[in-house]
């Protein structure tokens, strides 16, 4: 994560969405996907921020799936990109699968930026409570 991306995330976490969008727009380059540029154009407030966030996530999800060549994709990386793309139903299904399989990454969930949007939801909080603390070895 770049410093700019960290600042955008920090501003959004403080609900300063218009400032986050302004900082994000300053980082647009010729390599920024057109769908993200379009989403950022004129975006305002929380809804605009999330639309841009989801557009960015969709690009990343599509890239992950196309680069896999039909082979199995890491459940963690798939879940991240599903949440980031705004597909919370698929993201929560992937999280539930990770919990069921007792995947070690489930204990690190509070660290992941891709979960910022769902972090305060009752469903996410209940899942975190169910996961609990990492067992001692």
Structure description:
The protein is mainly alpha-helical and 137 residues long. It is 61% helix and 0% strand. α1 (3-13) packs antiparallel against α2 (17-26), α2 (17-26) crosses α4 (45-67) and α4 (45-67) runs antiparallel to α5 (75-84). It is globular. It starts with a helix and ends in a 6-residue tail after the last helix. The mean pLDDT is 92.
In short:
The protein is mostly helical and 137 residues long. The protein has 7 helices and no strands. It has 2 domains: 68 residues, no CATH class; 64 residues, no CATH class.
In helices, the fraction of residues equals 55-70%
> Tell me, what's the shape?
globular
What is the percentage of strand-forming residues?
under 5%
What class do helices, strands and sheet pairing give?
mainly alpha
How many structurally independent domains? 2
Number of helical segments? 7
How many beta-strand runs?
Answer: 0
Global mean pLDDT: 92
Give a short account of the largest sheet.
none
**What is Rg?**
16 Å
Unreliable stretches covering 5 or more consecutive residues: none
């Amino acid at each position: 994560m770049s410093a700019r991306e960290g600042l955008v995330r920090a501003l959004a976490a403080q609900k300063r969405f218009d400032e986050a969008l302004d900082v994000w727009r300053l980082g647009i380059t010729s390599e920024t996907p057109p769908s993200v540029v379009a989403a950022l154009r004129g975006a305002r407030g929380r809804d605009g921020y999330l639309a841009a966030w989801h557009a960015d996530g969709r690009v990343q999800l599509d890239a992950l799936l196309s680069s896999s060549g039909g082979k199995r994709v890491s459940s963690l990386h798939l879940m991240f990109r599903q949440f980031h793309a705004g597909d919370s139903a698929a993201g929560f299904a992937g999280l539930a699968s990770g919990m069921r399989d007792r995947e070690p990454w489930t204990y690190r969930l509070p660290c992941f930026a891709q979960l910022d949007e769902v972090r305060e939801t009752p469903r996410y909080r209940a899942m975190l409570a169910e996961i609990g603390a990492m067992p001692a070895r």
